[in-house]
Amino acid sequence: MKLKTQLFTAVIATMLSTSALAHPKLTSSIPADGTTVASPKNIEIHFSEDLLAKFSGAKLTMTEMPGMAMQMNMAVKVSPGSDEKTMLLTPTTPLSAGKYRVDWRAVSSDTHPMTGHFMFEVK
Ligand SMILES: [Cu+2]
């Protein structure tokens, strides 16, 4: 009985550590979270795992223009970046001054979607 319990615990621990390793986490972005930047041509999001591009993506929302709160979806092209851990967002029109939120969804080989968001400001 005791051996069975230990074995079971070991199996669970292995499963947990395997899935934790496989889950893509945001490691950095350009612009970085909370920063103020000149209007960026691209938004680069770096993850800890290779992404399945087909199931991964992001949307860009303008949340404030100077003096006015808003929720405006911005058209972006999402493409793989320089490597499979990177997602590239290219706004179809230049981003004007204001605050923006990026909501990302990242899926890697274990197919569990991870989501998150970060914000930046364009001066
Ligand atoms: Cu998973």
Automatic annotation (TrEMBL):
Pfam families: CopC. It is found in: Periplasm. Its main location: periplasm. Residues 1-22 form the signal peptide. Transmembrane segments: none annotated. Keywords: Copper, Metal-binding, Periplasm, Signal. InterPro entries: CopC-like (IPR047685), CopC/D (IPR032694), CopC_dom (IPR007348), Cu-Rt/internalin_Ig-like (IPR014755), Ig_E-set (IPR014756). Residues 23-122 form the CopC domain. Belongs to the CopC family. This is Copper resistance protein C. It comes from Limnobacter litoralis.
